[in-house]
Fold this sequence. Notes:
This protein is of the alpha/beta class and about 300 residues long. The chain has helices at about 20-30, 60-65, 80-95, 110-115, 125-140, 140-150, 155, 165-175, 180-185, 205-220, 225-230, 250-255, 265-285, 300-310, and strands at about 10, 35-40, 65, 100-105, 195-200, 290.
Amino acid sequence: MNDRPAMLCLAGPTASGKTAAALAIADAFAATRPVEIVSVDSALVYRGMDIGTAKPSADERARVPHHLIDIIEPTQAYSAAQFVADASRLVAEIQARDRLPLLVGGTMLYFKALFEGLDAMPASDPSIRSALDDEAARVGWPAMHSQLAQVDPITAARLAPGDSQRIQRALEVWRVSGRPLSSFHSAKPARDTPPLISLEPNDRAWLHERIGQRFSAMLDAGLVDEVKRLRARGDLHAELPAMRCVGYRQTWDALDRGELDTLLEKGSAATRQLAKRQLTWLRSMPQREVIACDAPDATARVVERALSLMRR
């Protein structure tokens, strides 16, 4: 009986080489079972946000079909539940075309939700949100983060003290339901989990250097001008989920403060913190197969493992 997986998943922190590895997998399978890539990235969904999200280029997207990129405006929100619905539909459609769905990205909550499912979380409560905003205005978001750590240490551990949007949502869920947000993300009964290849560094310093180089390249490519164009639209503000994406938030703040000279340092630091949180999420996925992204032959190892999985 053929027990080959119906899809493959490739995860890793930012700047770990996922895009290059995904394209190499697609090249390796081109003659036998063409690949279509489903993005697992909460930032790539937004239109008009190309440089700061390291969105695959037009040439890369022409080489291999990509999905869940440029699907909503930055004024809109996109949830893990929406991702699961969209990704599940796309996987079925890709399989029906006798192609291989390759899920690639660094939004680990999306992977976890797809693998394990999510409990239905309580709806937003405007009165509680307003009360939380008022409290944060008095004591600051780091203090609200400390408050969250008392009631939901698991969620607090993966959030930066200044991540007001997610801290607010976690505290809102606690106050509405009496349950920590992390309890809605807890493991569900075992499912048939697709293979997950994870690119992770043996040497964290290697990843930090890559992050700095990539953020510098984003600045050279026009990240500041991209954010200026987004600000000029008139319908965006700094508290929207899209504008709180790493890189965009720091650039928006730098433009507000007139401190562009420190943007490289602050943007790189924020991206390192994101990578740290991504690696924490990955460690909670014991089914993953780790390949060292700082190995000279990392991409070749990923391709070899993908081919091996599909030969089962």
